[in-house]
Design goal:
The chain is of the alpha/beta class. It has two domains: 118 residues, Rossmann fold, CATH 3.40.50; 180 residues, Glycogen Phosphorylase B (Rossmann fold), CATH 3.40.50. It is 33% helix and 18% strand. A six-stranded parallel beta sheet has the order 8-7-6-9-10-11, sandwiched between helices. α1 links the parallel β1 and β2. α1 runs parallel beside α8 and α5 crosses α6. It is globular and about 60 Å long. The chain starts with a strand and ends with a helix. This is ADP-heptose:LPS heptosyltransferase. It comes from Maricaulis salignorans. One of its GO terms (cellular component) is cytosol. Keywords: Glycosyltransferase, Transferase. GO terms for molecular function: ADP-heptose-lipopolysaccharide heptosyltransferase activity.
Length: 316
């Protein structure tokens, strides 16, 4: 039996990006048992990992003391392999047969490819989420039949990454109209706890649209519902990467984040931005986190509609 310690991200999107490396190890090391260290937001994504021994939840502490806690909880085990996608030094001070610590790329490359470089994997393995049959059955109850379902996530981790609510509403109205690409489709509204503030203006603007409100649903449950959707359109966020990982055609909306690194991964995905490049937006805003409003205002409804239509048709 091999013992593998897999150290992955705190953030949901980054943890999903890294999941292809974990899946590669699951598939290629059939004798391995896994301990996964991650942040509390991402922990539920890994509960169905095959041959899982435990999940160590790393809660951030001042002065990096969460790394000390991780070392204390893992130093007593002789690991056959430590894979550290957080680029920390913790793995250097554990007993391990092999250590693979990520060296971050100095040039913009897809984060999936960067994660794969920790094991020198080329081509990079696709991200993958393991879902239980119970969660899949719940999704079938929430989204019965064939739909079609259009999945929308109008939120993101920062307001500056959010496409305006009125733009989402205009896109949905046009895309699901009788002459649109998905006429009469039900719209699955997604988001994390507290994201109703982003969804409500869209609901208010479209009182006649058939919405299924799943904002605040757990991550595995959301992933299973996404798998039943025909198309996902949303901001650069963890749920965008989740949609791509479960195989749903996924269109990511970009502006103040770098689509060269963070575009959804796979042949069933695409990314779109307005006329301003990431470099132009980044150069104009020294600290985007202090920006109080969207930086995607230049991304038009026509641009998103055309990109979503092309992706829909390409993945038919």
């Amino acid at each position: 039996m091999q013992r593998v310690l897999f150290i992955t991200s705190t953030r949901i999107g980054d943890a999903i990006i890294n999941s292809g490396v974990l899946d590669h190890l699951v598939r290629t090391c059939p004798q391995a048992r896994f301990t996964i260290a991650c942040g509390p937001l991402a922990a539920s994504l890994f509960t169905e990992t095959p041959r899982l021994d435990r999940i160590i939840v790393m809660r951030k502490k001042k002065a990096g003391l969460h790394w000390w806690d991780l070392w204390c909880r893992t130093v007593g085990t002789k690991w056959d392999l430590v894979v550290d996608l957080r680029s920390s030094v913790t793995g250097c001070f554990l007993r391990a047969g092999q250590r693979r610590i990520l060296k971050k790329s100095k040039t913009p490359i897809p984060k999936v490819a960067e994660a794969a470089s920790v094991l020198a994997l080329d081509p990079p393995p696709d991200p993958r989420l393991y879902l239980s049959e119970a969660v899949r059955a719940q999704a079938a109850d929430r989204l019965p039949g064939e739909g079609p379902y259009l999945a929308i996530c109008p939120s993101a981790s920062w307001i500056f990454k959010v496409w305006p609510a009125e733009s989402f509403a205009a896109f949905i109205r046009r895309f699901t109209a009788p002459g649109g690409v998905m006429p009469g489709a039900s719209v699955v509204m997604l988001g994390g706890p507290g994201d109703a503030v982003y969804a409500q203006p869209v609901f208010d603007a479209l009182p006649q649209t058939r919405f299924i409100d799943l904002v605040g649903l757990g991550l595995p449950e959301t992933a299973a519902c996404l798998q039943r959707c025909r198309l996902y359109v949303g901001n650069d966020s963890g749920l965008m990467h989740m949609a791509a990982a479960v195989g749903t055609p996924t269109l990511g909306l970009f502006g103040p984040s770098d689509d060269r690194c963070y575009a959804p991964w796979g042949g069933h995905t695409d990314a779109v931005r307005g006329p301003a490049s990431f470099a132009e937006i980044d150069g104009a805003h020294d600290d985007r986190r202090q920006h109080p409003e969207s930086l995607l205002a230049d991304l038009t409804v026509d641009t998103v509609y055309d990109a979503a239509k092309a992706l829909f048709e390409r993945t038919a």
